[in-house]
Amino acid sequence: MENLIKDVTANVLHVEPNNVEVAYRLMGGMSNFMYVVKVNGLQYTFRIPGKNAEVFVDRVEELENIKKVDVLHINNKTLYLDTKTGYKLAEYVEGVPLSDKENPEDYLNEVASVLKRLHESNVSATKDYNPEGRLASYEQLVLDLNFKHDPKYDELKSEFCTYLPELNKIEKVFCHNDSQISNIVVEGEQVYLLDWEFGGNNDPLYDVACVGNKEFELAVKFLPVYLGRDPKPSEFKRLYVWRAFQCLQWHNVAMYKELIGLSADLGVDFKFVSGLYLQKAEQFLKDARQY
């Protein structure tokens, strides 16, 4: 793997492979392998997608969206993205992921600023995120591996679908769709939104809900900051419903990873993770009913 990283990086930067140093792996992601490489005193990140990652990400679409968002200056610069392999070389951001900050709540105004720059731009993503269609495709992945969803899943999905007529009326804007705080990096006064694999047009409150991926209370506190006013009950409801959907979505993704053997390969119990997401989806839908 190290030789692969050196060879691709050397080819992109027009240097000799022995001038490329693979410094270390960035830990935390469960879908891709990310490495920091050094070349002539400069640092870059090199991505190698994990097993079967291509079933979730359209690399051509990812590249097109990265090019579109470059004009907003909220992403690190991508130098190379192979749409067949998913290998990506980008400039390294000398910052700290918000997930590593002692109190991410201190940066909610900055996060609101970077998301609004995206949402309020005149830039449109290549395609809609299409939550309903995406969920169906993720379901099919596990069904093709002879997995049968628990009746509880079908019940929760049906409840989520009752909200779709109203959700589909919301004006769609360019969204990141994976704006969890591990993908938000603070470098001095600059805040970056990294990893655009799931970019697409969507309800902007979807991104607000993603901020609460680790601790949902953070998204609840973030909503009025993002809106710049007290949220309406209907907006709180959307927040909880979207988070429930995200949990249903990642329930399928985690189960797929279990079924293809990634639990053993990565030392992560994806079956357990999948079950947790289902429990969370149930709780978020229950919370949504109060509004």
Any overview of this molecule?
This protein has 291 residues and is of the alpha+beta class. The mean pLDDT is 96. Helix 5 (151-161) packs across helix 11. The protein is built from 11 helices and 10 strands. It has 2 domains: 2-91, Phosphorylase Kinase, domain 1, CATH 3.30.200.20; 96-288, Aminoglycoside phosphotransferase (APH), C-terminal lobe (Aminoglycoside 3'-phosphotransferase, Chain: A, domain 2, Alpha-Beta Complex), CATH 3.90.1200.10. Strand 1 and strand 2 form a beta hairpin. The protein is globular and about 60 Å long.
Indicate the low-confidence ranges by residue numbers.
none
CATH architecture group name of the largest domain: Alpha-Beta Complex
How many structurally independent domains? 2
CATH T-level topology of the largest domain = Aminoglycoside 3'-phosphotransferase, Chain: A, domain 2
Number of helical stretches of at least 4 residues:
11
- Widest sheet: strand ordering: 1-2-3-5-4
Q: Approximately how much helix is present in the residues?
A: 40-55%
CATH class group of the largest domain: Alpha Beta
